[in-house]
Amino acid sequence: MNRKGLNQGRSGNVSVRYGDGMLITASGCHFDEITPEHVVATDLDGHYQGPLKPSSERSFHAAIYRQRPDAQAVVHVHSPWATTLASLRRAIPAFHYMVAVAGGKDIPCTPYATFGTDELADHIANAVRDRDACLMANHGQIALAGSLDAALDLAMEVENLARCYAQALTVGEPVLLSDDEMDAVLDKFGSYRENAQASDEQ
């Protein structure tokens, strides 16, 4: 995440579903120096194993896994352009068809809440009820997927969309695609995902 410019230092966190719980990065770990020892096994109620504490934001990872049984991995980063829009509390609307990559006609921005709180976890669980990514007001972004690689790819796409949308706003208000067009794109994306999954299984 750091090498790709999505993150810096110790900000952000990553998890994968593991049995009835999850594996999540430890609190305060530096992503340029991470080792397997910095990954903590924890249940969805916050109880953990080992000497290191899990990320202070484990509550929203757990909330996502409860809300989305299909989610197998979650990537949370403070990427610059997504955070820029999040500080304005702006969702990413349908200014480009690739917005549909997050599963809907926009990429929502959650209300603000202090990091690590149940309030923030509730906001995020609500945002990803029918989306695979969201912005977090005055905070950053989250992407979820069926694997870590896919979640990282989605986080990168969200950051690119955030950059393009923010750049467009400096010139004027972008023309948005219609609901009918986004419905057509979402339908095509559904077929694309089915083909990609079939290819991965071969």
Question: What's this model, at a glance?
Answer:
The chain is an alpha+beta fold. The chain is built from 5 helices and 7 strands, in the order βββαβαβαββαα. It comes from Tamilnaduibacter salinus.
Indicate the structural class. Answer: alpha+beta
Uncertain parts: none
Shape: globular
**Span of the ends, CA to CA:** 28 Å
**What CATH architecture label of the domain at 62-201 applies?**
3-Layer(aba) Sandwich
The major beta sheet can be summarized as: 7 strands, mixed
Counting DSSP H or I runs of 4 or more residues, the number of helices is: 5
Oligomerization state: single chain
Q: What proportion of the residues form beta strands (DSSP E)?
A: 15-25%
Helix content: 25-40%
Overall pLDDT, averaged?
93
Sequence of secondary-structure elements:
EEEHEHEHEEHH
The CATH class label of the domain at 62-201 is Alpha Beta
Report the radius of gyration as a whole number of Å.
Answer: 17 Å
Number of strands: 7
Across the major sheet, the strand order is 3-2-1-4-7-6-5
Compile the SSE list and pairings:
Blueprint: E1 13-18, E2 21-25, E3 39-43, H1 58-67, E4 73-77, H2 80-87, E5 109-110, H3 118-127, E6 133-136, E7 140-145, H4 148-169, H5 179-201
Parallel strand pairs: 5-6
Antiparallel strand pairs: 1-2, 1-4, 2-3, 4-7, 6-7
Overview of this structure, please?
The chain has a domain at 62-201: L-fuculose-1-phosphate Aldolase, CATH 3.40.225. It is built from five helices and seven strands, in the order βββαβαβαββαα. The protein has 202 residues and is an alpha+beta fold. The radius of gyration is 17 Å and the shape is globular. Helices cover 36% and strands 16% of the residues. It has helices at 58-67, 80-87, 118-127, 148-169, 179-201, and strands at 13-18, 21-25, 39-43, 73-77, 109-110, 133-136, 140-145. The protein starts with 12 loop residues before the first strand and ends with a helix. The longest helix has 23 residues, at 179-201. It has a seven-stranded mixed beta sheet with strand order 3-2-1-4-7-6-5.
